Amino acid sequence: ALAHLHERCIVHRDVKADNLLLAHEGRDAPVKLADFGVARRWPQGEHMHTACGTPFYVAPEVVAGDGYSGGLSDCWSAGVVLYIMLCGFPPFAEDDMALLFALIMTGTYNFPSPSWDSVSAGAKEAVRMLLTVDVSKRPSPHEFLSRCKWASGAAPDVCLDVRSELAKTQSLARAGRKVVLLQRLLPKPR
């Protein structure tokens, strides 16, 4: 979906687990990307400056506030989604927004046991590729799909309690959105 959008010079800017929908029930259901409320047309080479998205999924370059190339920020967010899909909880989850953003800016996360014990090394490498802080080293959707070989083979049937974990992060995300809104309303320091 991201490759399709980026080919058409559209950046989503709010890729997150809540915005992924199944087309129908069943193991082979196609996944649809939804909620284009903050999506924007993005001519190649142009930098964006609007900080938007959900705090737990936002890329380091968006947090930095110095302008960013939108497509690769979507790829970071896809890495957060992939992390959640593999273990059931986000890589960056802090109540304190300053600490959350510090973890994101430094790419500080891990693969804790036992949640990651049954996840393949290839799947972990796929997460690492997308959660690369250095934008110049983060793959585009096409690069990711061509370099990522971890999806071959059967995945173990592991039941993850994703709903309760996402409910926790959703309440934190609401608080984070309030912080971002307040930051926008306050005058810029001189």
From TrEMBL:
Gene3D superfamilies: Transferase(Phosphotransferase) domain 1. PROSITE patterns: PROTEIN_KINASE_DOM, PROTEIN_KINASE_ST. InterPro entries: Kinase-like_dom_sf, Prot_kinase_dom, Ser/Thr_kinase_AS. Pfam families: Pkinase. One of its GO terms (molecular function) is protein kinase activity. Residues 1-151 form the Protein kinase domain. The lineage of its organism: Eukaryota, Haptista, Haptophyta, Prymnesiophyceae, Prymnesiales. This is Protein kinase domain-containing protein.
